[in-house]
Amino acid sequence: MRIENDVKLGFKDVMFRPKRSTLSSRAQVDVERTFKFLHTGIEWTGVPVMAANMDTVGTFEMAKVLAGMKMFTAVHKHYPIEEWSGFLSLAPRGIENYIAVSSGTGSQDLVKAEKIFHLHPHLKFLCIDVANGYSEHFVSFVKQARTKFPDKVIMAGNVVTGEMVEELLLAGADIVKVGIGPGSVCTTRVKTGVGYPQLSAIIECADAAHGIGGQIISDGGCTTPGDVAKAFGAGADFVMLGGMLAGHDESGGEVIEKDGKRYKQFYGMSSSTAMEKHAGGVAEYRASEGKAVEVDYRGPVEQTIQDILGGLRSTCTYVGAGRLKELTKRTTFIRVAEQENRVYNE
């Protein structure tokens, strides 16, 4: 047993220090990025905010709207092949640049992914997603996927430390997903005692990835547009959102009415709700590591996206970053004990 005494920080622990700026308007800020991926050489340009591969977020409907804004959706893995076929036959031109096929590490997962790629050979992205990316099996699976799909961009995770980011990149991943336990409907930290404050995880993992030409996705923990900006400021290349995109028309699930108010269900993919829906229940050897909640119904997602991107542009103007790419170079975080004056918060 050993203890690390270095302080590890989450989004609530810091704020940006403002800096002198030559920008006169938020409209001058360019929030698009261009990346060239490590193993394929494929270039991608867009707004690097992603909808998470959860079945109450990463839906075909969400993908259509976000792709129109040059934003990304990791489509959840539970759509059958027939629904993929229908979606791809009707999807707008160029949508293959803004969606990923999601996969677990089961024996049939790559078979299903191969069938989907066969339907639309122009699809470029595969998201291999497990809660615990530290197993040898997971690294072997990433190697297998790289061999099977040499021309696809592979996202893989989740991990939270630099050495595992490097191992996954060397195994064949182009982008590594970072985050254990920060999500709003994730209970991993209380069920297992395992986790890592998200801001520090981003800083450590981004440094490791960028050193060998890879990228990272910050996955989880953002509750406000300011948190999204902090993730980018810490070095994240992409930021993946779950709870912030839940509750919308495009988020999947039925609208529930209670006492005159409308809600939509949102749940973690390791929750008993998800496992009962997709796996017939919680296996006897494991515990649920997620929860199900009812979030306020919020209408179309477009207004929420505008709020997120508006906040991000405003951050950039406060620190003098004319492009999102420059934000991390212009970032100085200050440690804080509070974020806001909550006297009028309900």
What class, by secondary structure content? alpha/beta
Give a quick account of the main beta sheet: strands, pairing sense, barrel closure.
Answer: 8 strands, parallel, barrel
Overall mean pLDDT score? 92
From the alpha-carbon coordinates, what is the Rg to the nearest angstrom?
19 Å
Q: Helices and strands, in N-to-C order?
A: EEEEHEHEHEHEHEHHEHEEEHEHE
Give the overall silhouette: globular
What is the topology, as strand order, of the major beta sheet? 4-5-6-7-8-9-10-11
Record the SSE blueprint.
Layout: E1 14-16, E2 33-36, E3 43-46, E4 49-51, H1 60-68, E5 72-75, H2 81-90, E6 99-103, H3 109-119, E7 125-129, H4 136-148, E8 153-159, H5 162-171, E9 175-178, H6 188-192, H7 198-211, E10 215-219, H8 225-233, E11 238-241, E12 255-258, E13 261-267, H9 272-279, E14 292-296, H10 302-319, E15 333-335
Parallel strand pairs: 4-5, 4-11, 5-6, 6-7, 7-8, 8-9, 9-10, 10-11
Antiparallel strand pairs: 1-15, 2-3, 12-13, 13-14
Helix pairs in contact: 2-3, 5-7, 8-10
Keywords:
single chain; 346 residues; alpha/beta; eight-stranded parallel β-barrel; three-stranded antiparallel sheet; 10 helices; globular
Descriptive account of the structure:
α8 packs across α10 (302-319). The mean pLDDT is 92. The radius of gyration is 19 Å and the shape is globular. By secondary structure, the protein is α/β, with parallel strands linked by helices. It has ten helices and 15 strands.
